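For this section, I looked closely at a protein sequence along with its fold in token form, which I now present.
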Amino acid sequence: MTLLRRFFTRYFQAPRLTVFETEVGVKYRFGRFDSNKFVDYVIQEVPFQSLGISFSDLVLPPDLLRDRYTLCGMALPLSPHFQLMEEIDTGTLAMGSEYMSRCKMGTLDARLPSNPRMTDLTQQYWRQKKEMIQHETVTISVIKVSLGSRQKYVIADGKHRAAMVAYFDRPEYLHLRLLSNAFTQDPFFQHVYSYTLGLDSHEYSINQDVIRAILDES
């Protein structure tokens, strides 16, 4: 390898996905999955109301957090995302709200801690609400799994959009893109899922159960 090639390889090569464990759970740097790629795994798109299910049958996806912090498998109406919609709508959003606190602690999902600005969240809310009212259609990506003895729909993409539809109780607006579990073959999911499945089940049982349900779904 020439000196020039070694230089470009060292300084311009895209950083590789790094997965590691922290006090609150598994985190990653670089190599994040592009949610636009979920469209490649859509089996069918159906109106939410055609399935005869409720908003509580929509649950949050694996977040790779320890059991004491995780939101994985939580019903959408009980989630901080739903609460965020209510707080912005009623003008009660505060820095100490659960959503904001979880962002700062890194316990909202597998991303590293962050400090979102309330003004940004509020602007996004009103923009999203305007689009919902104008188009009367909100589409999210889900995968149907068996959790215990019940069928649930794990939200792969669109938690905030789904939370808004649920908060305003407009099930007629919601459409579900049903995914094949083939997306788990993407290197990102292969890496983070296998890493999490290899950890202490006393600490990660909730995420591990949902990950296995996703991998087992055909």
In short: The mean pLDDT is 93. Residues 118-135 form the longest helix (18 residues). DSSP finds seven helices and seven strands in the chain.
